[in-house]
Records
---
Amino acid sequence: MARTASDRTLPRPGRPQGAAPARRPALSLMVLGAAADPHSERGVSCPGELPSPSDPALVRRAELARASLGDRAFVLGHHYQRDEVIRFADVTGDSFKLAREAAARPAAEFVIFCGVHFMAESADILTSDAQAVVLPDLAAGCSMADMATFNQVEECWEALEDLGIAASVVPVTYMNSAADIKAFTGRHGGTVCTSSNARRAITWALGKGSKVLFLPDQHLGRNTAVLELGMSTDDCVVWDPRKPDGGLDPDELRRATMILWRGHCSVHGRFTLQDVADVRERVPGVNVIVHPECVHDVVKAADLVGSTEKIISVIENAPAGSAWAVGTELNLVQRLATAHSDKTIVYLDKTVCYCSTMNRIDLPHLVWAMESLAAGQVVNQVTVDPQTAAQARAALDQMLALP
Ligand code: SF4
């Protein structure tokens, strides 16, 4: 099978099993669209000729390509994808649900992942070598995952070792991280978590060590530690990878229970306290529900907080006539509003904000990927090298075994 892999975790022959990969050279600045770095979560841009978005036959072409692939392909659609793409998904879900759905389809030769790069990596880790995971546009990355690079995390760990506290630190990485960060976590005895099980993951980690290094979303880490586990914000410090020693002095690190990585989601991080106040004024009786990737003050001011799956389920089960302001990605909020016209469902922010990287997967890219696969050409395959995959899998398996 032809492999046009986008490996950001390239094999390094000769490295002993279980050892840390060598440091990579620092990423250089690139002019947008003028170059690509395969080691970056941004991936590389789509090769080949894309159908025109204005092609009137686009939907028909997608239907024909999907039909011709039949059971050989399984199409996964993340909740934040566009409607034009989601209609071709065999299953929809959040990142972890989709990775598990992919793993549950061993007969599918091609797993077409309509989501972002770290999700396709997780699907590759959880599927068999006989299956190819395809990301229709390799430039569909995740700005949050990009905020924790392998080199930066290794540097942080070395600083903790120099300080003599690394042995008491257990890393916990959010699902929204690159495969090599998951591998780092597995190598150091930690676990992956999702927004639904972050509380259990941190509780488990604090039963094993006395501190947690939480990657890469500071908000999920802080919200879980403070609002669910009763810690104070003073128990949390933020490691800034752009500052020497993370911008922290040794005493701050020694005192902290939670060392939060300075990363955030560019979509959920936009919601403000003012947005919550405004919507309460605009929509009388509104219930505010937000994702735990939102900033701490916004989560505290909301009525409910929950993962994408929880938000969907709360709104589905809410009584007719109820009103909801939703702080998550706009494609999903719009679909919820259409599907539940008996309820008032509004976006928490007044300005429109889609996840720009998720939105890179559009119908032309999906048609191109499916037509290429139907013609026997595997395109945009995402692969993770076996050693990184094994170490990342250990962290994923630990998550599945969480008490
Ligand atoms: S919504 Fe946020 S965390 Fe999710 S893919 Fe987009 S930038 Fe990444």
---
Amino acid sequence: MKKIAIICSFNTIKSKRIAQIIADTLGSEKAELVNAEDITTEKFMSYEKYILSIPTWFYGELPNYWDEFVPALEDQNLSGKTFAIYGLGDHKKYPYNFVDAIGIMAQFIEEHGGKTNGHTPNQGYTFIESKALRADGHFWGLPLDDDNEAEKTEERLMGWLKSMKLL
Ligand SMILES: Cc1cc2nc3c(=O)[nH]c(=O)nc-3n(C[C@H](O)[C@H](O)[C@H](O)COP(=O)(O)O)c2cc1C
């Protein structure tokens, strides 16, 4: 069985901490941590199941390392691949762009034939607008707000992994 790629920038502190918890929880037989800062198209395309770490930066944008890499996937066919996305954000400072990057990435993936899972109900989250919110009231992935609600992170994360039957 191919491993799940947990792709995260190793230069982050908060996002990397989450990636490490996921990696430790799933174990090295099931999952592999991959650095988003130096990933190649070939390496990215070699997996079938992914957990992507997509924090939101710059008022509703992808962080630089994803923004620079995503164009390399423009010509790729992501069909047959499944992506779960978690994203750090700050609902107090950015209530109109809360975790937007999750939605930007999820839509890119689906437009290129990939499937997203781990859609999360919006209950318990406070925000005004978010590109990560689907028409069905679920987020495209798992929002985490370690800046304001760090005490909720572990429970949200474990609930998310359980919802995808990874626990
Ligand atoms: C310059 C800047 C812009 C940000 N823009 C947003 C935003 O538009 N939406 C949001 O939800 N969070 C935003 N944030 C909050 C970050 O996503 C949050 O602090 C997160 O924990 C960063 O995770 P990282 O350090 O692992 O990348 C922003 C933070 C900074 C410093």
---
Amino acid sequence: MSEKALLKPYNKGNFTLRNRVVMAPMTRSRAANEAKKPEEGLHDIYYQQRASAGLIITEGSQVSEEAVGYINTPGIHTEEQLEGWKQVTEAVHEKNGTIFIQLWHVGRMSHPDFHDGDLPLAPSAINPEAKSYTPEGFKDTVIPKAMTKEDIARTIEDFKNAAQNAVKAGFDGVEIHSSNGYLFHQFFNATSNTRTDEYGGSIENRARFFFEVLDEVKKVIPESKIGARFNPSLNGMFGMTMDEETIPTFEFIIKKLDHEYDLAYIHLSEPFNDVSKIPFAVENIAEHFRPMYKGTLIINGGFDQDSGNKVIENGHADLVSFGKLYVSNPDLVERFKNDWELADWDEDTFYTPGTEGYIDYDTHKKEESVQ
Ligand SMILES: Cc1cc2nc3c(=O)[nH]c(=O)nc-3n(C[C@H](O)[C@H](O)[C@H](O)COP(=O)(O)O)c2cc1C
């Protein structure tokens, strides 16, 4: 059984994990408190229950108030939030787990209701024409404010400050959420970034903001503890529309990371929807990008145990991250190991407050003993 690729320990550079099963970042909207901090008896338990993963990547956590776009998401920019996260890292480390925090800025995927009526920030004043889930329910997104140079400089500082807080809170590393149509992705994509300054126009310019953030974050946490997430073929979701420069932009970024940086990992997603009819899209992300990146590559998106083992065995990825399976299977590693049945997740409680659908999914043994 120890032959299974997903269950083998992972050792590359100074990145050592006890298996290759990664818990993907998932917003669960349980920080239903004024401080937007992880809560004792809730977040610490949730992540501790899943600590046998080789690596846990937390839910997206905002780097500032400006970065918020969803209700009850935790932050990592205040002392109180940092203290809340400490309980989480301690709980995971108690079980010998490894945990990175995902640093998040939603950019234009937000609503003035989150910002005292101010407009959300974005590279350009272009409405994503999406929905924002506000405290009063779904609302249409608006035309955001095009970020000034000062806004950009402040946001870079916010990421650095958040990374510093992550170190203080005891995280093993940070993942920059440069994926899924949020702020960095909005800079990368020509349909959301029409800037004419050094942050827009060419591929290199559209990638500049990401690398400036990375270079600042590197000052407070070693590169070997920084990951970055990308969803190159995201199209028709989260306000993203691909064009002929989209894939070349991700190729530029990933090759630059390969040549000039030594990150903990890059974390790629296979397309979220059918892109077979999109001429600019790449359908097999791991296969396409693997030859461009020598470091650790995590692949995500619709994997199960069999396809996860296969993608590692055929050399397209080093690690596989699982999202929804981790909602309902806290002991996913043990279930894989023993070929135990997997429990189904309940979408209705993905984002609801409290313990239900959050920390009440049983481990396999408990399920057995109930029967
Ligand atoms: C409830 C839920 C919340 C999510 N929140 C985030 C998030 O905060 N950050 C992120 O990068 N991806 C987020 N995702 C995407 C997942 O990380 C993952 O890419 C997606 O679920 C596909 O993987 P899967 O097929 O293994 O579930 C979320 C997905 C779900 C289902």
---
Amino acid sequence: MKRLIALTFFALLLGSTIQAAERPQHLRIALLITAHSAGSPEAFTVSGGRWSIERKLVHPALLVDHPQGRFLFDTGLGREIDHAFAANSWLNRKLLAYEQLDPALDQLERAGYQAGDIDFILPSHLHWDHLGGLPDFPDTPVKVLPSGLQEAREHGQRPAFLPEHLQGPREWQRLQLSDTPYMGFARSLDLFDDQRLVVVELSGHTAGQVGLFVNLDSGRRLFFIGDTSWTLRGVAQNRSRPLFVQWVAHVDSDREANAHVLQQIHQLHQQQPDLLIVPAHDEEVARQLAHFPQFED
Ligand SMILES: [Zn+2]
């Protein structure tokens, strides 16, 4: 009898795991908030931002579940991030402080997924706060533009990069964009050849930063723009990060190139108000998305 109960329990457990990891019939997405920043005046996040408003930016991973592939667009912060972060200087630990850590893999496992259920990781770029969960997925391939990986490996330093994440055994797959323009961007990659998930290059914040257009069956369209801007306010007003922040932290690899990309996204935002622009860290925009284990399709 005991054995029967144990077997039944095991079967139920297995059943829920299979269900969670089943391939969906159609595209669906869910946001996983892996941490919040400790908070700062909005004026720190965007030029012309308000001093009286406190922003608590988020560190998300986006789970993209497509019948032909399941991937994370960014990982957010992971299980080893406290350890990695402790090696930063006192000033950087203050400037980049985060709280409410809840790594993507913890959230996935609570819902019955395993690391192996993720087919690949597609980081918007290779900064610590977007790739901090990488060690939790040691066997998962990572798709990147070669220029992004090259910059990170040759010039990547703390605190922006965690160099140890970029070494060691890992399958780095080359993203190959074609010369097919998409939404005003010169080069693009239609990930599964169905116009639902389209990658474009947004180099500037880092070399090889990419953005992701998501076209859901519901008709809702979203554009995940990485760190081109930290806030939607920056996109709406075409304003870069404040100069004093740029000066202290050297945030962008190529500030002019980032300003150019921001201008392009600003125009798109004006021309297509139904396209939801999603700056990775904007907590107000994040509230408009389904949060894992809820999905939007
Ligand atoms: Zn970031």
